[in-house]
Amino acid sequence: MHRSFWQAAWGPFWLTVVLSVGIQAAEIDFVRDVQPIFQKHCVSCHGAESQKSGLRLDIKSEAFKGVDGWGPSLVAGRASESPIIELVTSEDVDSRMPPEGDPLSAAEIAVLTEWIDSGALWPDGVDLAELEDRLDHWSFKPMTSPTAPEVQRGDWPRGSIDRFVLSRLEQDGLSPAPEADVVSWLRRVSVDLTGLPPTPREVNEFIEQARRGEAAYAIAVNRLLQSPRYGERWAQHWLDVVRYADTHGFEVNTERPNAWPYRDYVIAAMNADTPYDRFIKEQIAGDALGADAATGFLVTASVLLPGQIGKDAPSMRLARQDALDEIVNNVSQTFLGMSVGCARCHDHKFDPITAKDYYSMQAFVAGVEYGDRKLRTPHSEALERQADAFRERVAEIDDRLALLVPPARPRVDQELETYTSNARENTETFEPLDARFVRFTIHDANLHPSLGLIEPCLDEVQIFTDEAEPRNVALASHGTKVTASGSRMSSNHKLEHINDGQFGNSRSWMSDSKGTGWVMFELPDSARIAKVVWSRDRNGKFTDRLATAYTLEAGSSIDQLRTVKHVPPQRASVNAAINIDRFSTVGLNDDETRLANRLLGEKRSLEQRIKAAERGQVAFAGTFRQPDEIHRLHRGDPEQPREAVAPAVLSAIGELALPIEAAEQQRRRALADWIADPQNPLTARVMVNRIWQGHFGIGLVDTPNDFGRNGTAPTHPRLLDWLAQEFIRSGWSIKHMHRLIVLSSTYRQSNQFDPQAAAVDADVRLLWRYPSRRLEAEAIRDAMLAASGQLNLKMGGRGFNLFNKRGGLSGFTPVDSFGDDGLRRMIYAHKVRRERDAVFGAFDCPDAGQSTARRIESTTPIQALNLLNSRFTIETAAALAERVAAEAGDEIGDQIRRAYQVVFNRDPEHDELHQAIPVIREFGLETLCRAMFNSNEFLFYP
To answer: Which segments of the protein form a coiled coil according to its record (predicted)?
Structure first.
C-alpha cells in the first residue's frame, strides 16, 4: 500500500526530472519544441479566430501581454509565476487547460517550464500569424475631401449627392427609379421632416406651385424646416439614441418628474438649427454655456436610486461605477459611434481601445451625479424674482401672525422658556470668556414644506471678540479652521463657505445628517469672545433647514468646552415659518380672527405659487461636484483598483490629456471641445450618417452606434466623407444637410420595384429606388390625430400620461381614452422606461432601456389588431368621420372623396369610390375611416 502510494505520488515527478535533465542537455528551440505544443493544444482557443480570456499564443507580442484576471501570461525566467504553467498543471479538471481533449503530457509541461525558466526566448519572424493593425480602419483615419465623380447619365444628378449615388449604381449596372409624383414627394418629405402628413390645402398649393417650376420644392422644404413641428420630429430621433425617459428604470422605476426640460431643450435646439458642434458642447458642459437643461443628456440612462443600493461601501462603489459607465457609454456611442464601454473590464476585443482609455474617459465625467438641478435661464430668473417677492410677503405675514401667537396659544406652558430661531439672523450673547474652540451642535431642525425632516443648513457663522470694536475671529482669512460632523457637498453647500465672509444660501454649509450635525471652529490663538451670530440664510430667501434646537459651546480646548447657549427640542418653536395647519385662533377676538384667517389664506396661496415657481426652475440635468479619483480597475472590479488615471481621450484617435487635479467643469469642457473638433475623424461622420438614416431608413453605415471594427463598412465611403466635410463647411448646420438630401434626385425617386435591380441589391442599400418603410409609432399616432382634427399642438412642459401612473413598483395600466393634453404629439408623452404604449408600442417603439440608434421594423398580428380594435383608433376614427361629414356634407360620395383627401392626400379612384359606398351605408362612415387608418398607404412612406 505504501509502495503504491509513493509510486503514484513520485512517479510523475521523477519522470519530469528525467525529462528535464534530458531537455537541459539539448537547448530548447522555440520553433522546434514550444510552438508545436501551442499549435496542438492552445491556438484553437487562443489564436487568430478566438482569444478567450484575452490570451493569444500565435503571435509573440500578444502572448506576453497577459490573461484577463491573471496579469502577464508568461513571466520570463519564472515559470512558477507564469499563469500558463498554472493553468496546464491545475489539479482542478474544470479549470485545467485545455478544457477539451487530452491534457498536456508531462514531457510537454517540462518543455514549457524549462523554456520559460531559461528566458522564454521567442525569435522574431516566426509567428504563425501577422497581427492585424487595429488602427488600420476607415473610421479612425482622417476624413478625405472627395470630389463628386463623373457619371454616364449626366441629366439625372441635381447635385453632388446624386453623382456619388449614381456612380455606385452604374458600377453595378443599375439605374435609378423614375421620379415620384409631386404629391408622393410632398407627403414623403412632410412626414420625414415634421412627422405629419400635409393638409389638403398644402397639397393643392404645392401642386399649383410645382406647375410653375422647380422652386416649389425648395419653398416647401424651407416651410417644413421652419415649422415648430420639425423640432418635435427630429428630436425624437435623438431621444431614441440617448435613451431619454421620464422614469429611473430598474425594478422601482420611479418617476423623474423633472426630466422633461432636456426633451424640450432638444426640440428647441433642433428648431433653432443650433450648430451641431455647439449642440455637443451644450449637452456635455451646458452649465458653462448658458444651456443648463442640455446637460440632462449626461444622465438620461437608468440609474439605481439610493434605496436600491446596499449601504455597504462595496455596493456603493459598484453603483457609482455603473452610473459613470452609463455616462461614458452615452457620450461615446452618441457622438463618436464607438462602443467604449466594452473596455471596462479589459482591453476592447476588436477596437484599439484599452482599459486605460476607458477609465481616462471616465475621469472626464467623474464629478457628475444623477440628480435635479436648478436651471439658470431668463425664464427661471424671472420666476425666481417672482418667488422672492412672494417670500418677502410671506415673511411680512409671518411677522404679523407672530404678534397674534401668544393670545392665540394660551395652552403653552408659561413656566417653560420659549425661544424662536430666525432664518435670517440669530445673535447669541454670553458672559465674555477666553476661547480657542467654538462648537455649534444642531439637535433638531424645522421641516421643509413638502419633504419632511431634512439636513440642516448654516449660512455664515460669526464669532465676535469682547472689544470696543468687536472683530469677527471666525473668518478663514483670520486663520480659523473648521471641521464638521459631515458635509453634503454641492456648488452651493461647502464647509469652507461657513466662514468665508459671504452671505446667502449659495455660500452655506449643509449637514449630511437629517435634522442634526455640528461644526467646530478652531481659532489660531485664544481670544476673549462674547457673541456669536448665525443664520440659515442671511439674505432671507430660505426658511427651511433651520436649526430649532441646538447647543453653543466654547472653551480654551476641546476637553474644556462649556455651554453658553442651549435650546432643547421640547422648548424650541419656530417663528420663521408659521405652520398654517397648526395655527390656532383660540383667544383672538372677532377682528383678530378675521385678520388671521385672511393672512393665513393669503399665505397659503403665496406658498403654492412659490412651489409652482420652484418646480419650473428644476431639471433632471445632473449635479456637479469635486471629481472622484479614478483608477483603472482590474477586471472592472471597484474592489481591485490599480493605478490612478487622469482625464484623457481615446489614444487611438487623439492626444488630449488633462492633469489629474483638473477642475470638474474644465474636464467636461475639454472633452466637449475634443469631440466637436472638426479634425475628429468620427464626430461629423457619425452625425451625417444619422441624418441620412432619418431620410432613408438606414444609414450609409448600418451600425450607427458602432463605427468600430465590429460595425459595418459604409456602402458609399466617399459620399460619407463628402457629407461630413460639407456638414462642417456649412457651420455644422443640420437643416442644411436636410435640404441637400431631400432636394436630391436620389430622394425624389419613386419606390417602384425593379426585379432585376432587386436581384443585385435586395436591401436597396445602393438606392436604386426610394426604400419602402413604415412610419414610426409616434408618426402613426400623430398622423391619425392630425387627420381627425384632434391634434393638440401645445408644446413643452410635463408629459401627458400613457399609463394611469407615472412610476413605481406595481404594473402600469394603460390609459385607453385621451382628451386635452393626451391629444398632444406623442413626443410629449410621459415616457415610462421598460413599458411600451398599449397600442403603438407594438410598432417597435423603444422602451428607453437601451440606445435605439435604428428602429428595426417588425410585422406582427398584434399591430393590426391594436390599430383596428383599440379604443384610441375607434375614437379617432369617429372624430375623423365627424370632421369629414362637417366638411363634405351629407352626400356619401362627397364624404368619401373628402376622407381620401384628408387621409391619403388624393381623390379616390373610381373602384374605390363605388366599393366604399355600400360599406358606409351598412356600417357607417367611421368604419371606412378605421379601414383607412389600417391601410398600407397611410402607414408607409410613399
So the answer is: 589-616
179: amino acid identity, one letter? E
Which residue has 410585422 as its cell numbers? 859
The DSSP element (H or E) to which 923 belongs, if any, is helix 910-923
Report yes or no on 354 lying in a domain.
Answer: no
Cell 388624393, located at residue: 906
CA gap 913, 42 in Å, rounded:
73
The whole-angstrom separation of Cα 474 and Cα 482 is 9
Average of pLDDT values for 368-384?
83
> Greatest CA separation found in the chain?
116
Burial group, residue 256, by CB count within 10 angstroms (0-12, 13-18, 19+)? buried
Could you tell me which residues come within 8 angstroms of residue 683 by beta carbon, excluding any fewer than 6 positions away? 280, 335, 336, 675, 676, 677
DSSP string, 770-799: PPP-BPPHHHHHHHHHHHHT--B---SSSP
Task: Indicate if 434 and 551 belong to the same structural domain.
Answer: yes
Residue 14 predicted with pLDDT over 50: no
Asked if the model's pLDDT at residue 13 lies above 50, the reply is no
Residue 669 located in a structural domain:
no
Same domain, 429 and 561: yes
One domain for residues 470 and 531: yes
Residue 61 domain boundaries: 10-117
CA–CA dist 844, 532 (Å, integer): 65
Q: In Å, how far are 268, 812, 897 from 873, measured between CA atoms?
A: 30, 21, 21
Q: Give the domain-ending residue among 517, 549, 577.
A: 577
Same domain, 398 and 477: no
Residue 242 lies in a domain: no
- According to DSSP, the β-strands at 623-624 and 572-574 are unpaired
Q: What is the pLDDT of residue 447?
A: 64
- pLDDT tens digits, one per residue of 598-657: 888 888 888 888 877 766 678 999 999 999 999 999 989 999 999 999 999 999 899 999
Helices 2-25 & 106-117, crossing angle to 10 degrees? 50
Tell me 428's DSSP state.
E
pLDDT > 70 fraction of the chain, expressed in percent and rounded: 91
| Listed range (175-184, 457-466, 612-621) with the worst mean pLDDT | 612-621
Q: Are residues 65 and 201 in the same domain?
A: no
DSSP assignments along 197-214, one per residue: PPPHHHHHHHHHHHHH-T
Give kind and range of the element (H or E) at residue 232.
helix 228-242
Confidence (pTM): 0.74
| Grid cell of 181 as nine digits | 409624383
